[in-house]
Amino acid sequence: MGRYIGPKSKIARKFGEAIFGTDKSLEKKNYPPGQHGLARKRKKVSEYGTQLLEKQKAKAIYGVQEKQFYRTYEAAARLGGITGENLLKLLECRLDNVVYRLGIAPTRAAARQLVSHRHIVVNGQVVNIPSYRLKEGDTVGVREKSKALEVIVDSLGSGRRSRYAWLEWEGSQMTGKFLSKPDRADIPENIREQLIVELYSK
């Protein structure tokens, strides 16, 4: 199945929370989309259904498809320690996610597009793989001839960028540094990662 390119509000309504940021549509219709949205709201969800929904939510937030998500989970399980936390840490190490976190792009989808279209450099070299996993000390920046791109200038000028303990930003150079993998407490996403581990452990 291909990547979903429909309205983001539909996805947010499915999970009942604004996973892509402020959403007026969600405020007006706080029930699942579709013909039976209101009826479904009252239906009791099974344990498996709750676990599956949490996995789908994490995939939607980070813009990752099933095969890649499961590969990331397997890598997290091999690391030792708490698998769920490792999973989120590895997702945060993705290049498209870091481009978004640094404020270079307004959304993860826009960040993925900037990376794919060769507007982003890692340690001075163009990298066009959104899933590229950053290591401690890597620098991420905007390619010199892409610094005037409207989407990048608007995003950096919007004031949306938040400061994260694991990232460092140098505005004058349009570069950021990936200092380390984040601690779970520093990842703001509302994901119950243990449910995902339980789902994959069945």
Q: Any key phrases for this structure?
A:
globular, 5-stranded antiparallel sheet
Break the fold down into its secondary structure elements and pairings.
Blueprint: H1 8-15, H2 24-28, H3 37-41, H4 47-62, H5 66-78, H6 83-92, H7 95-101, H8 108-116, E1 120-122, E2 125-126, E3 139-142, H9 150-157, E4 167-170, E5 175-178, H10 193-200
Q: How would you characterize the overall build of this protein?
A:
The protein has 10 helices and 5 strands; from the N terminus they run H-H-H-H-H-H-H-H-E-E-E-H-E-E-H. It is of the alpha+beta class. It has a 5-stranded antiparallel beta sheet with strand order 2-1-3-5-4, with helices on one face.
Quickly describe the structure.
The chain has helices at residues 8-15, 24-28, 37-41, 47-62, 66-78, 83-92, 95-101, 108-116, 150-157, 193-200; strands at residues 120-122, 125-126, 139-142, 167-170, 175-178.
Task: Tell me the span between the first and last alpha carbons.
Answer: 23 Å
The proportion of strand residues reads 5-15%
Mean pLDDT: 86
Roughly how much helix do the residues carry, as a percent range?
40-55%
Classify the secondary structure makeup into a structural class.
Answer: alpha+beta
Number of helices: 10
Family: Belongs to the universal ribosomal protein uS4 family.
InterPro entries: Ribosomal_uS4, Ribosomal_uS4_bac-type, Ribosomal_uS4_CS, Ribosomal_uS4_N, S4_RNA-bd, S4_RNA-bd_sf
Protein name: Small ribosomal subunit protein uS4
Organism: Alistipes ihumii AP11
